[in-house]
Amino acid sequence: MQVLFEEGEYLKLQEAARRRGLTLAEWVRQALRAARRDEPTESTDRKLAAVRAATTHAYPTADIDCMLEEIERGYRT
Question: Which of 28, 47, 50, 57 is least enclosed by beta carbons within 10 angstroms?
């Protein structure tokens, strides 16, 4: 793969890599891997369908103040 940058931008990228103790090539590889990891793996429609399906179920619940007190009690023990 070849990526072309204007000289000023290239120098800034080199400096960013140097500050991290990396070659520019390794810095770019890491940045691209991170960008790929951040990409959604499921479609929005599929995620919304899962949320909608989950809302049709009856889950146990309690008064919010009671739940918060139980949580706080758990932290103290």
Answer: 57
